[in-house]
Amino acid sequence: MLKQQQEQRQKLAIDVQQIQQIKLLEVSGEELADRIREELATNPALEVVEESEETTPEDNFLDEEPLSNTENEQEGLQDDFSPEDYTADDEREDALREPPRPSAGDDDGPSYVQPNEAPSLSDELHEQLISLTLSDRELTIAEYIIGNLSDDGYLSASLHEISDALLFNENLDASDAEIEEMIHRIQQLDPPGIAARDLRESLLLQLRRLPKDEVHSLALSIIEGYFEDLAAHRYDRIIRGLAITPDRFSEAQRIIRQLNPRPASGYGSNLEAAVARIVPDFTVHLHNGELQLWINDAPNLPQLGISPAYLAITKAPIRSEAEKTSRAFASSRIAEARQFIDALKRRRKTLLHVVGAIVQAQEDFFRTGDIQQLRPLVLRQIAETVALDISSISRITQRKYIQSDYGIYPLKFFFSEGTTGSDGEAVSSRSTKDLLRQLIEKEDKRTPLSDTELGALLSQEGIPIARRTVAKYREQLGIPIARLRREL
């Protein structure tokens, strides 16, 4: 009976550790810092230790053995562990250390790149409001209008809705005329096309900012009087209605195509500007012909160890029932802290194995940056390589990014199905789509290529492909059929 209870307790401890490990695998580098802060706040036996020497860069990931599902799965769960293994001794390797990051001027590795945070559209517009001479009443109305702009920069609320909100929240009874006047003033701010009610109004606002000439005036006439025909590609009706030549229409059409249908693109959303940037979780760099891999945990990620005060409690003699209870509590919290540190170490090792396997599978791409060098890759292949289940690979690759010498990519970017080329080599569907996109970009817009013609050109490039597959890839790229791509 006692043995059965011990086995149940051990199984429960393993289950708890596995759940903790799964959750840690899912988080990004920045989220990991938050998770560590939470653990520090709830477990007094866990503390930050002083910084010690940096560890060796994780640039030898290709030489590591695959990580199994069962390797050390009970590590850290035994009752007879030594607390000294997790002290803040600088000579010990059990304290979690931040991975080394090459400095910006270090030629031996890549710089840690953090893209600039996109500014908030709301902040930009509020700064411009300062330059206007507005009364407190007008400023309140303006702020409500800006607060109702979508992430694309469109005004999503009606005059009636804004009026009701002002009356209810600010006890301000604003007329439709007042609100409309303030909308008009905001529409004069940058970026052009902002605070429009629909696409047509946004395009008109942008056109009216451009220098006046004959072609721009024609573009303005097309948007004002023939917007629906333009959207439906009924070009002949526009040409007849305005009594212009096809060449003249094409000139105006080029102006219209240069306008921005999403005037707020490039700005962070009002609610998410603080997290609009992408911080890569990994960096891979080609140095002296070898690929090096780093884990980019959040800057200033703390090193963790066990509190000496709690270790002292476990060593002190027991002279009362209270001291016995204190020792049991301290031992329990130390065990939890040790499990957390072990989980962080195992997370690092698992991530290195998985991302290292992805880099190895797509080595040609990371060496050249050429999308055509991407190979077909599915989660199952990586799972088999590192001896983990597919669900673990899926969790690891969600919401994580890697910086290469050629840009920042989500880990999911490197997974795609494939076809077989004429030479028998596997071809990634992603590289096929990229080639398809290039062919369409280079086509004569007066006589766009059909899906059959595109398939023939891909076959000439060594990628035999069915017409229906071309159509599927084209639709996934968001490219319309040939008839709708035609320009006069």
Task: Provide a descriptive summary of the structure in words.
It is a single chain. The model is unreliable at 53-118 and 269-276 (pLDDT under 50). A hairpin with a 2-residue loop joins strand 5 and strand 6. This protein has 19 helices and 8 strands. Helices cover 49% and strands 7% of the residues. The chain has 488 residues and is α+β, with helices and mostly antiparallel strands. The chain has helices at residues 2-26, 29-42, 121-129, 136-147, 159-170, 176-186, 199-207, 214-231, 235-242, 246-257, 308-315, 321-361, 363-368, 379-386, 390-397, 429-442, 451-460, 467-476, 482-485; strands spanning 46-49, 282-287, 290-295, 303-306, 401-404, 407-410, 418-420, 426-428. Among the domains are: 122-257, no CATH class; 280-410, no CATH class; 429-484, Homeodomain-like (Arc Repressor Mutant, subunit A, Orthogonal Bundle). One of its GO terms (cellular component) is DNA-directed RNA polymerase complex. Residues 329-486 form the RNA polymerase sigma factor 54 DNA-binding domain.
Q: How does the SSE layout of this entry go?
A:
Blueprint: H1 2-26, H2 29-42, E1 46-49, H3 121-129, H4 136-147, H5 159-170, H6 176-186, H7 199-207, H8 214-231, H9 235-242, H10 246-257, E2 282-287, E3 290-295, E4 303-306, H11 308-315, H12 321-361, H13 363-368, H14 379-386, H15 390-397, E5 401-404, E6 407-410, E7 418-420, E8 426-428, H16 429-442, H17 451-460, H18 467-476, H19 482-485
Parallel strand pairs: 2-5
Antiparallel strand pairs: 1-4, 2-3, 5-6, 7-8
Helix pairs in contact: 1-12, 3-4, 4-5, 4-6, 7-8, 8-9, 8-10, 11-12, 12-14, 14-15, 17-18
Family: Belongs to the sigma-54 factor family.
InterPro entries: RNA_pol_sigma_54 (IPR000394), RNA_pol_sigma_54_core-bd (IPR007046), RNA_pol_sigma_54_DNA-bd (IPR007634), RpoN_core-bd_sf (IPR038709)
GO molecular function, one term: DNA-binding transcription activator activity
